[in-house]
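hey so i finaly got around to running the thing on Type-4 uracil-DNA glycosylase from Pseudoneobacillus rhizosphaerae. pasting the sequence first so u can double check i didnt mess up the copy paste, my clipboard has been acting weird all day
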Amino acid sequence: MSTFCPELWPEEPTPHNLENCRECGLYEHGSRMVWGEGNPEAPIMVILDNPGAREDREGNSIVCGTRQSLQQAASSAGLKMEDLFVTFILKRRPVRAYEKNQVRQICMMHLEQQLQKKKPELIVCLGNVAVQSFFQNPEADVKTLRGSWHNVLGYQTAVAYHPLAVRRRPNLWSMFLDDWRFVAERYHYLK
Ligand code: SF4
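ok and heres what it spat out for the 3d tokens, dont ask me to read them lol
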């Protein structure tokens, strides 16, 4: 029986000067900002499209399905929580229609600042939305790019399906695991 147990990773606070960021207009959607979570000094940065809730409606902490599947696959591949920092293309979760390209372009500036500060050894980009934004290529997709290393903004980057896609289509799970093993192998080689 698996001993894996998902946990709510510690949240990295939003920098004080950006706590009230209104640059892209998503503040009007009412979702709160999540700057990142996991180990802020981690060698591997994981990039998702936007943050799922960390609390339910009553304010109790929850570990959403995306986080559960991500943690489970990373753990199965031999990675530890302290190896990973998770952040997002958008630091707020959109809850209705928005100007996708414009908003992503604006918030990508914050991700680029995070990269300059943290300088991760490896990046794992999850899902087509995050991949297209990070690769600055609207045609980029996980299916084509997975299983190889790509130089993006000077960082070694791997891609994998979004954990929610994997939950919806269980046949993707083995590929998702393969992608995390691919990352873990490079990480352990670099250590
Ligand atoms: S999503 Fe990004 S740009 Fe938009 S308000 Fe939040 S931090 Fe600012």
